[in-house]
From TrEMBL:
<dbReference type="InterPro" id="IPR017938">
    <property type="entry name" value="Riboflavin_synthase-like_b-brl"/>
</dbReference>
<dbReference type="InterPro" id="IPR017927">
    <property type="entry name" value="FAD-bd_FR_type"/>
</dbReference>
<dbReference type="GO" id="GO:0008218">
    <property type="term" value="P:bioluminescence"/>
</dbReference>
<keyword id="KW-0455">Luminescence</keyword>
<dbReference type="InterPro" id="IPR050415">
    <property type="entry name" value="MRET"/>
</dbReference>
<comment type="similarity">
    <text>Belongs to the Fre/LuxG FAD/NAD(P) flavoprotein oxidoreductase family.</text>
</comment>
<dbReference type="InterPro" id="IPR001433">
    <property type="entry name" value="OxRdtase_FAD/NAD-bd"/>
</dbReference>
<protein>
    <submittedName>
        <fullName>Oxidoreductase FAD/NAD(P)-binding domain protein</fullName>
    </submittedName>
</protein>
<dbReference type="InterPro" id="IPR039261">
    <property type="entry name" value="FNR_nucleotide-bd"/>
</dbReference>
<feature type="domain" description="FAD-binding FR-type">
    <location>
        <begin position="1"/>
        <end position="98"/>
    </location>
</feature>
<dbReference type="GO" id="GO:0016491">
    <property type="term" value="F:oxidoreductase activity"/>
</dbReference>
<keyword id="KW-0560">Oxidoreductase</keyword>
<dbReference type="Pfam" id="PF00175">
    <property type="entry name" value="NAD_binding_1"/>
</dbReference>
Amino acid sequence: MNEVTAKVKAVELVNKDVYQVTLEMESFSFIAGQYVMIQLPTGEQVPYSIGSAPGELPLLTLYILVSDPDSLAHKVIEHLSQSSEVRLKAPGGDCHLEKETLNLSSEHILLIAGGTGFAQVKSLFSDLVARRFQGKISFYWGVRTQQDTFADAWLESAKQHENVSVNLVVNDDSDEWTGRTGWLYEAILADHPDLTNSLAFISGSVGMVYGTLDQLEIKGLKENNCFSDVFAYAPRPEKPQL
């Protein structure tokens, strides 16, 4: 990863606790699916998936969840809000569209996100569309409540592309939400009972990633056809031998 400087163009609250950050980065390149490390004046470094596609450069988008005023994320937003420039290490991560094991001639790619894992799969989705990927793209985003959603305009525009399905799944049922509810993997398996010929990118917490993978493997998804940053920093525990 290289040390680079970005201009801070905007820091906007897009729901009750998620900020959309827009940076401007000249002479920078990355692959959809990669991340940046924001460097704080304290020396702390915080990783965030890039939420925009390479074709949107020199602008670059991040989505930052701030659920605790004592968190590093809160420090990041304070720093960005008070600064015209920010130091980054970038790009990082090998869960991207140039992996040597990834076959972009596949007939179906699943893009699966929990919470602000949305950023990474949004970048992947946008770049696949820009590359005119010929297979089917199935985008699934799971959130706890309807109030946890954001990027409504982008979601609506994403639905307009051919060979694409965009699915928002809310975990907690309520009278206000009339869309899909339940666990994310339940929606995926209801739509795709056979995943033998599918690839999947999964972005979210460690538990969400491995829990989803366990369920999708039952329906034929091969582990070597699944990609996640979680695999690098939290290797999957060995399954018990029966």
